[in-house]
Amino acid sequence: MPKIKQMEARLADMIAAGEVVDRPASVVKELVENAFDADATIIDVEIENVGMTSIRVTDNGTGMDAEDARMACLRHATSKISRDIDLSHIHTLGFRGEALAAIASVSRVTLKTRLKGQEGYEVNIDGGHLTFEGAAALNPGTDIVVKDLFFNTPARFKHIKSEQSERHQIIDVFDRMAMSRPFVRMTLSIDQTVIRRTLGNHDMTALIDQIHGKNASRGITIIDTDVNKVGIKAYLLSPEQNRARNKDITVFINGRHISNYVLTQAVRDGYHGHLMVNRYPIAIIYLSIDPSLVDVNVHPQKRQVRLVNEAVVGYHLETHIRDRLSDQRHHILRPLEQQDDHETIKVQSLFIEESDASEDKRDEAPAQLKIPEADYVGTYAGTYLLFQNNDGLYLIDQHAAQERIRYEYYYDALADPLFATKPLLIPYEPTLKPSDIETLIHARGTLLSYGFELTEEGLISAIPTWLKDTEIDKSLESMADMLENKHTIDLRVLRDHLAKDISCKGAIKANHPLSRQEINQLMRDLRTCKNPYRCPHGRPTIILLSLYDIEKMFKRVV
Ligand SMILES: Nc1ncnc2c1ncn2[C@@H]1O[C@H](COP(=O)(O)OP(=O)(O)OP(=O)(O)O)[C@@H](O)[C@H]1O
Ligand SMILES: [Mg+2]
């Protein structure tokens, strides 16, 4: 007797359901995606009891006829693709034809739908069984109610985490969907309370403020560009708005939210130097890429994608973000300042966007004095230099300030295309991991163009003139790291890394008293920096407490 039998369709659906709908939030995601695919412009999501009692999604999209309504809940029923060639040109969010069937196999679904100019139709499915069908009254579009989720799969039911975490997941999914279609009007209500209401008018700042908090979009930087046929539109929140985790770097490819390590890391690297260690930026990135270069058929939930030339896209993303953020006007940090300059900042960032951000513009030194003249008052805790003038009291972190000075010195030194080398009398054997030495030997030609001469055995026979003998290992390590992780060598990134590492190592430490002469020199040097306000790792070098701020603390003014 043969033992292998074809599985009953309903059982197969339940198995698929395990992959596609693992929690209420994934039901919300699938239903809203279907509404997007049906070109809806208004979508309402209503949740009861974190979705375990009911999830309802109403849309004003194309709707379905009676036949399609019945078919829709069957496995492998999709209107979106029919031939294998279609798989490489996916323009819709759905294509697997299994989401509705999977949902209907583990819940009780009431599907009402109506094509424009036709009568509405209703289909009820209970744990995968059709229990009712007939005419229904509704506006053109589709109205799906999913009740009693996982009622017939008790193990999954139990697996659902705390109410709080499910609620977060639902809001999170909704927010990403809303961001993916800023032109669709969407509402989310949970237990009869409206949690989100988007305007559907493309107003990204309003959307960002609603999702990330009031005024979150203040000082936002917008990138809108095309590189090698890849459209990049990015909304970069000011580095001051940052998070402890990287879940607020949101990337969409062709309108689909995806999770992709390389791209997320590229965004983070682009913000490098503007954020402190272990802090993550908030950014919303829209990439438009030829669908044939994107494989979305990797995972049942369609979150992972494979991207041809992923590293190149990441590289462009990182470079554009870095360039635009360093174009930003920097200023002295005023931690107690009432920020009421929202409008001005917005106008400025728009202005930068319209002008042609050319390469050399970035290196121009602004005319005005970046750090005003002030009188030295004293040093606090052997670390903070205090100055005063009519504007208020300045605190300067001497370590951070010197790091900045050294960073810019090395950054410029490294920029010299004619790297003069100095030969070493005795070839130096670097104390690096063997794998790093291997990497460097491979890239000998490139290293030579930076002034490092490497023998075939991995000994250093000459170094750039600007490099101190004590900093050889550090520089080689940075270069090996770059070569391994980025595969490509970007001169500017290399300069940045090297300059950062070297500057940090040699900078004066905190708690090291400086003479008056050293203080004066430090201030002179800091004033000549292109961005004297932050150390290369993003920490402030200088803080201003204005007279107003101080009087406010003493409650002299309100
Ligand atoms: N809100 C809706 N409006 C109009 N048609 C819909 C709607 N929801 C589903 N459909 C129809 O039902 C079909 C099945 O939906 P289902 O979500 O199961 O599969 P899919 O979207 O094609 O693929 P995937 O499983 O990847 O989501 C869709 O192809 C579409 O034709
Ligand atoms: Mg779908």
Give a structural overview.
The protein has 17 helices and 24 strands. The chain has three domains: 9-197, Heat Shock Protein 90 (2-Layer Sandwich); 210-344, Ribosomal Protein S5, domain 2 (2-Layer Sandwich); 365-558, 2-Layer Sandwich (formyl-coa transferase, domain 3). It is an alpha+beta fold. The radius of gyration is 29 Å and the shape is globular. Helix content is 35%, strand content 23%. Helix 2 packs parallel to helix 6 and helix 8 packs parallel to helix 9. Bound molecules: adenosine-5'-triphosphate and magnesium ion. Residues 30, 33-34, 94, 99 line the site of magnesium ion. The site of magnesium ion has 5 residues, from helix 2.
Query: What is the count of β-strands?
Result: 24
Shape: globular
Structural class: alpha+beta
Level of helix content? 25-40%
For CATH, the homologous superfamily of the largest domain is named as: MutL, C-terminal domain, dimerisation subdomain
List the defining traits of the structure above.
558 residues, alpha+beta, Heat Shock Protein 90, Ribosomal Protein S5, domain 2, formyl-coa transferase, domain 3, 3 domains, eight-stranded mixed β-sheet, five-stranded mixed β-sheet, 23% strand, globular, binds adenosine-5'-triphosphate, binds magnesium ion
Quick summary:
The protein is α+β, with helices and mostly antiparallel strands.
Explain the layout of strands and helices.
Blueprint: H1 9-20, H2 24-37, E1 42-48, E2 54-59, H3 66-72, H4 99-105, E3 108-114, E4 120-126, E5 129-136, E6 141-147, H5 154-159, H6 163-180, E7 185-190, E8 193-197, H7 204-212, E9 221-227, E10 230-236, E11 242-243, E12 249-253, E13 256-258, H8 261-270, E14 280-281, E15 283-288, E16 294-295, E17 306-307, H9 310-327, H10 342-354, E18 375-380, E19 384-389, E20 392-397, H11 398-415, E21 421-428, H12 434-442, H13 444-449, E22 453-454, E23 460-464, H14 472-486, H15 491-506, H16 516-527, E24 542-546, H17 547-553
Parallel strand pairs: 1-7, 12-15
Antiparallel strand pairs: 1-2, 2-6, 3-4, 3-6, 4-5, 7-8, 9-10, 10-15, 11-14, 12-13, 16-17, 18-19, 19-20, 20-24, 21-23, 22-23
Helix pairs in contact: 1-4, 2-6, 8-9, 11-15, 12-14, 14-15
Bound molecules: adenosine-5'-triphosphate and magnesium ion.
